[in-house]
Design goal:
The chain is an all-beta fold. It has one helix at 312-316, and strands spanning 2-4, 16-20, 23-27, 33-34, 36-42, 49-55, 72-80, 83-90, 95-101, 112-114, 122-125, 131-138, 144-150, 163-166, 175-182, 185-192, 200-206, 214-215, 222-223, 233-242, 248-255, 259-260, 263-264, 273-281, 287-289, 298-300, 318-320, 332-334, 342-345, 350-355, 367-372, 378-402, 405-414, 417-426, 429-437, 444-450, 454-461, 467-473, 491-510. It contains one helix and 39 strands. Strands 4, 27, 28, 29, 30, 31, 32, 33, 34, 35, 36, 37, 38 and 39 form a 14-stranded antiparallel sheet that branches. Strands 15, 16, 17, 18 and 19 form a five-stranded antiparallel sheet that branches. A four-stranded antiparallel sheet has the order 2-3-5-6, with no helix packed on it.
Length: 512
């Protein structure tokens, strides 16, 4: 059956997958965004439903003052004897932790913390019932390692000393390790080369869990580092799963580059996305991934169930008229939100945002609520009514990467005048690049359109003719240009600062 990649578009990095019967479950990293660690469900490996999140206020999830691309790193999800386990690292809190549940739809336990360093943890159940914890680390000389020890997955207590398992297969930054057992051997799969354009996936095997491990003769088993087609880049940080029919599959991260009039650029702003590829095992017992280590935007494989015939862009479209009490699960916040600042007014079909002194430029929790941008070409709209304001008030619609990189069209109060402003923050430069004074009418509509090269910003006042205010290059929100090392992607979000605003009819429509 044919299917389309990525299977989770937009900001969905570091995927991990498990199977329970005929059901598949997948998690990804979330960094400074809240709630943490989305859990997706599928029966066919292509169409995914967001069930909820592992980390919420119910299990004391802390992202206060979290730096951009801090927070949650590289989760792993596993299923064993009726129980789901998720292990990950909050690098901005107390490090590694495990949560568990019998049903991902019903919430997760409180975190059990693991007092060890490193990132990218994983769990492995052996045939004798022992459970192992693996993560990356460093030896006495500072060389990167993959380390292992026994663990109790319910309380996080380590039951043995950590031992070095591997130094990788020659690439820098061995990380994202997962351990599997097949053909009576232990297979250690890991990412190497860094998560940028030299990214790759390698594999080793051993007769004993502690090694020694021999590398696969055709490593790397997955990489696009030398691919000249330019459709997909940065592939790696993978996990594999066997379906109920005995077929094997790999999920991995990858990126699609933006561009413009000059064509494809080595830049991406949607984030690292989740891709799917078939895996077959050679006669020598080594995995062969995709087309000899390459994957494509369109692939074929023996999927366990038929794929939905719903148009891809229709599945991505987002619409909220604020007529329901609950927030859509696709909404995220910046760090821990202040719940009192987000009021769904069902009688008015509106969202009332209470803006505080915290702005989009701060490492804090501004009044901000958004959804991932999942394709290059889209059209985001919202109606806004200004309420109580003070000097410095801003409220509107933003294309947001992190506190240092965002563009927004907003209503603002400037020297007692009401304006529509186009503002940009790139590196350490924040500026209003276009503005127009407007009357005090209540009917204001804001719109952001995007393609691979640019964002375009428009507004309408009192139902009059739409006005184009300006544009911004997608390159300004691209990961490759960020000052701190960054791992996230662009959101389309509503926000308010220094005053209150009421939003109606928020929508994002994607184009083919």
């Amino acid at each position: 059956m044919k299917y389309r990649n990525p299977i989770l578009s937009g900001f969905h990095p570091d995927p991990s997958i498990c199977r329970a019967g005929e059901d598949f479950y997948l998690v990804t990293s979330t960094f400074e965004f809240y709630p943490g660690v989305p859990v997706y469900h599928s029966r066919n490996l292509v169409d995914w439903e967001l069930l909820g999140y592992c980390m919420t206020e119910e299990n004391e999830f802390n992202l206060e003052k979290c730096a951009p691309s801090g927070g949650i790193y590289a989760p792993t999800i596993r299923y064993h004897e009726g129980m789901f386990f998720m292990i990950t690292t909050n690098v901005s809190d107390k490090g590694h932790f495990i949560v568990h549940t019998e049903n991902p739809r019903n919430g997760w336990s409180k975190p059990q913390w693991i007092c060890e360093g490193g990132i990218d943890p994983t769990l492995f159940w052996d045939d004798d019932g022992k459970v192992y914890f693996l993560c990356n680390g460093n030896d006495a000389e500072g060389h990167s390692t993959i380390e292992i020890c026994e663990i109790n997955p319910f309380n996080g207590k380590l039951l043995s000393e950590r031992r070095i398992l591997s130094y990788g297969c020659g690439g820098k930054y061995p990380e994202g390790a997962h351990l599997y057992k097949r053909f009576g051997k232990y297979y250690l799969m890991l990412a190497e080369g860094g998560t940028e354009y030299g990214h790759m996936e390698t594999i080793q095997r051993a007769d004993d869990i502690y090694g020694p491990y021999e590398p696969c003769p055709h490593n790397p088993i997955l990489t696009h580092r030398d691919d000249t087609k330019g459709e997909i880049h940065c592939t790696g940080h993978a996990d594999i799963v066997e379906d109920q029919n005995g077929n094997w599959w790999m999920v991995c991260l990858g990126t699609r580059c933006n561009g413009g009039e000059r064509g494809i650029m080595m830049q991406h702003h949607l984030g690292r996305e989740t891709f799917l590829t078939p895996v077959v095992w050679s006669e020598n017992g080594w995995p062969i991934v995709g087309n000899n280590g390459k994957i494509a935007l369109s692939m074929e494989g023996p999927l366990p169930e038929e794929v939905s015939d719903t148009d891809y862009t229709e599945k991505l479209n987002f619409e909220d008229n604020f007529s329901k009490a609950e927030f859509d699960l696709r909404y995220n916040y910046l760090r821990n939100p202040h719940a009192e600042c987000y009021v769904r007014e069902l009688e008015n079909k509106s969202l009332f945002l209470k803006g505080t002194e915290e702005t989009l430029n701060n490492q804090a929790s501004p009044t901000w609520i958004g959804v991932r941008q999942q394709e290059f070409c889209c059209d985001a709209k919202v109606d806004i009514e200004v309420c109580e304001t003070r000097e410095g008030f801003r409220a509107g619609l933003t294309a947001f990467y992190n506190q240092y990189y965002h563009y927004e069209i907003c209503v603002a109060k400037n020297q007692n005048k009401r304006e529509i402003q186009l503002a940009k923050h790139v590196h350490d430069i924040f500026a209003v690049t276009a503005k127009a004074e407007i009357p005090a009418g209540k009917q204001i509509s804001l719109r952001v359109e995007s393609d691979k090269g640019k964002y375009y910003f428009y507004y309408t006042v009192n139902g009059e003719k739409e006005v184009f205010l300006g544009s911004g290059l997608t390159a300004g929100l691209s990961t490759e240009g960020t000052v701190p090392m960054s791992f996230t992607g662009t959101y389309l979000a509503l926000f308010a600062e220094n005053g209150d605003a009421r939003f109606k009819n928020f929508s994002i429509k994607y184009k083919k």
